[in-house]
């Protein structure tokens, strides 16, 4: 009887550490599985098959135009785990990658959190920084979710200050607040985009392109060298810098690439020029920027809002960003996400088969990626 009791006690004593080890093993396996996306990115999982959207005469395509996918808000996240589980954004910046050409992406936002998150996922990289300045018109739920996003991700910044971006100076002050957030960090170039802009190229492509700018500033495709900013006079309205920058601001600051060495000079100049009201939902522009707009839908500043009608030709355009309305055609945004994903992870430099995709073939590589 005594031996039986001793054996029972011995087994009980051994079972406790074994159970602890088993729990730790399961927890480690679960964490490793969850964190695997840091090394193996997850492809966008859309409800529509974007490969069918290239045949503009197919029934699938025509049926989609009659029943477009619209933005459906997700639930309000309570913690960082829920955000990362949905979007698979890395939690930390790898130290070994810190020496790359660090970019800073800035935009002012006011609504549509899920659209903001979708576009962020298209462009996200752990070695770059992202700043979202909030407009005063944002509702409480949007602000709450944006602040949580900024708190959860080390390279995503969401200033607590709100900005009235109905004027040029209000918009510029919002940008400047972002630029001040990490001014002590030697980022190389900042890319300013408007609220409804979506990228057409990978962040790698944008980074390589920005490196070629060196210390120049680019607005609306016009380049300005350092000496132009050194001699800029905000009271001289006849200069090219004044005309281009005013037009850029008028169209909600979409798109500009600014070198770190010149951002203070540029914004000192811009904030010294006369202030003016910007287009918004109450004050829409009557003139349009792009007359050949297939959707015949325009943003408040007259910019074309792109949709699935434009998807077949979107792969061959040289534009960096375009406008989209998630409340008109969110499926188009999701399909562009697939394009950007493939341009990011099937780069021709590292994958010769990607040339078939990037230069207009209808071969869709993302399905193969999902099946691997």
Question: Care to describe what's here?
Answer:
It is a single-pass type II membrane protein. The protein has 372 residues and is α/β, with parallel strands linked by helices. Helix 4 (113-123) runs parallel beside helix 12 (326-345). The chain has helices at residues 2-35, 59-66, 80-87, 113-123, 140-152, 168-181, 203-211, 226-230, 240-250, 263-272, 311-314, 326-345, 354-358, 366-371, and strands at residues 103-109, 129-135, 156-157, 162-163, 189-193, 197-199, 217-219, 222-224, 256-259, 305-306, 321-324. Strand 2, helix 5 (140-152) and strand 3 (156-157) form a beta-alpha-beta unit. It folds into three domains: 2-38; 49-70 and 283-372, no CATH class; 77-278, Spore Coat Polysaccharide Biosynthesis Protein SpsA, Chain A, CATH 3.90.550. The relative contact order is 0.13. It is globular and about 95 Å long.
CATH class of the largest domain: Alpha Beta
The level of helicity is 40-55%
Quick one: overall form? Answer: globular
What is the overall pLDDT average?
84
Structural class: alpha/beta
What is the CATH T-level topology of the largest domain?
Spore Coat Polysaccharide Biosynthesis Protein SpsA, Chain A
Describe the oligomeric state of these chains in a short phrase: single chain
Q: Low-confidence runs (pLDDT<50, min 5 residues)? A: 349-363
User: What fraction of residues sit in β-strands?
Assistant: 5-15%
Backbone CA Rg = 24 Å
What is the number of E strands?
Answer: 11
Main sheet record: 8 strands, mixed
How many domains make up the 3D coordinates?
Answer: 3
What is the CATH architecture descriptor of the largest domain? Alpha-Beta Complex
Amino- and carboxy-terminal Cα gap: 59 Å
Main location: membrane
GO cellular component, one term: membrane
Pfam families: Branch
Keywords: Glycoprotein, Glycosyltransferase, Membrane, Transferase, Transmembrane, Transmembrane helix
